[in-house]
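Section 3.1: Structural characterization of target chains.
Under the original work plan, the team committed to producing a structural model for every single-chain target entering the pipeline before any wet-lab resources were allocated. The record below documents one such target. The sequence was received from the expression subgroup and is listed exactly as submitted; it comprises 213 residues.
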Amino acid sequence: MTIEQTGIGTTETGTAGPADGTSTRVVLDHIAASVPVIASLVDHGEHIAAWADDIAARLVAGRRLLAAGNGGSAAEAQHLTSELTGRFDGDRPAYSAIALHAETSAVTAIGNDYGFEQVFARQVRAHARAGDVVVLLSTSGKSPNLLAAAAAARDVGARSVAMTGALPNPLASAVDDVIAIDGPSANVQEAQLVLVHALCRAMEPALRRGGTR
């Protein structure tokens, strides 16, 4: 049964809702707005595949992936690293991936001693080595701590890539490569989750083969 079929003033389960259906309309409008933003990932299909091939090759060769973001983008970054250290689709060896914002003692210590702008950059300098990849997620592309992390990645010889909102933005100019998605911030984050899953799915064959060497 669709929401429209339940009648104004009730939800699909029959629970009383706003008499004018305002909440329902907001929900449907949000879902409708997300569809074209997510669908725009089709235009980035070859680009996402190239990222998958490159990152998988680095991980199989023993390199490390570092990821970071703020707020909702932090959750997306941690989602990516969990799929690599855990598993995405079927069993395979674990690969080294660290969500920098999840290192709470490091984040608070660095923030306290050096300022919030350095919470990711200092960890990049500590953990990243030449050939590693640093993945930065931001809807605005303006976060100072991510810009500092991109600079730190360049200094240590790690490759930096970003998932951002619409161009132009400072982070897109600071990294080695970017996939920029145009749309409202919340919808961009939703599309970034689909991008993360597409990336992981495309990496899986190489990650499985690499684990058998």
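The chain is about 55% helix and 10% strand.
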